[in-house]
């Protein structure tokens, strides 16, 4: 099983360098960065910097979207990072949340997510590509055939179907084993129905991890279900509460949700946290003592998880990395 860490853009450059070096030495496989250019600093300079201080770790945005950049610019950026890192670059991809909604723009349709996946992968390989915003063919003469892994973030049925049909993996921002199994199963089934070989398909669970007593763990990570609730609310609004397409456990927990402040996206001081219960926080995150983490991760692995990506947004980052390197990661290595 793979392990990753994920940063927001408020981590100082010096600290980011130190954290990725510590994480690589601890056995982590990936470092992910939020791609939300207004709320936080642009992530790709930070990724390039951190690549220079590691030799094995892979890097990726978690997640980018089709509407933030011209597609040739995005493909050139991704191919350049892959080349200068020796092939250590993936992307996470979504419709666009905080990076576009904070500007009052709408997320991309799923058909555009799928087209972006195909067209950008082709450009990164070095193929000649025509896409909607560019009337002339685009081809990078310097591309060297790199096959860009694209992992698609999803919650709703149609997004999960897209993730299975065109993605190399699915990103699930939730740490509840039942929901991970339910969500991942839809993505893998869609890929199988499309005739794809899903043997190496990644199921990436992205969620906070924290060590300590129950009260301190819950207080440090309660921001996360609020962020998840923002996505789930979109799905419930589209499909309703009685469609059978959204589990009751998801619709119930956002029943009292009043709103969401995108300027406080993914932060513990978001004013819209009152609807979050301790039970929800425990369900969605990986909390407690090392053995509690191992137990929860084993349940998630049984549910289909192949990669655990820790959102390092709660403080105590050095200790979390150290604890995983000493007590957790070795338990999941073959």
CATH first level: Alpha Beta
First-last Cα distance: 8 Å
- CATH-level-4 superfamily name: Luciferase-like domain
Tally of domains: 1
Strand order, largest beta sheet = 3-2-1-12-9-8-7-4
CATH architecture term: Alpha-Beta Barrel
Shape: globular
Q: What name does the CATH topology carry?
A: TIM Barrel
The topology string of helices and strands comes to EHEHEHEHHEEEHEHEEHHHHEHEH
For the biggest sheet, the summary is: 8 strands, parallel
**Tally of extended strands?**
12
Provide the β-strand percentage band: 5-15%
* Sequence stretches where pLDDT stays below 50 over 5 or more residues: none
What's the helix count? 13
Helix % is 40-55%
What is the residue-averaged pLDDT? 91
Structural class: alpha/beta
Instruction: Please compute the radius of gyration using only Cα atoms.
Output: 19 Å
InterPro entries: F420-G6PD/mer (IPR050564), F420_OxRdatse_CPS4043_pred (IPR022315), Luciferase-like_dom (IPR011251), Luciferase-like_sf (IPR036661)
GO molecular function: oxidoreductase activity, acting on paired donors, with incorporation or reduction of molecular oxygen
Organism: Halomonas organivorans
Domain Luciferase-like: 1-307
Question: What are the salient characteristics of this protein?
Answer:
TIM Barrel, eight-stranded parallel β-sheet, 334 residues, 15% strand, alpha/beta, two-stranded antiparallel sheet
Structure in words:
The chain is an alpha/beta fold. It has a single domain (2-212, 289-331), classed as Luciferase-like domain (TIM Barrel, Alpha-Beta Barrel). The chain is 44% helix and 15% strand. The chain has 13 helices and twelve strands. It has an eight-stranded parallel β-sheet, with helices on one face. The chain has a two-stranded antiparallel sheet with strand order 5-6. A two-stranded parallel sheet has the order 10-11. α6 (157-166) crosses α7 (177-193), α7 packs parallel to α12 and α12 crosses α13 (317-328). The model has no long low-confidence stretch (mean pLDDT 91).
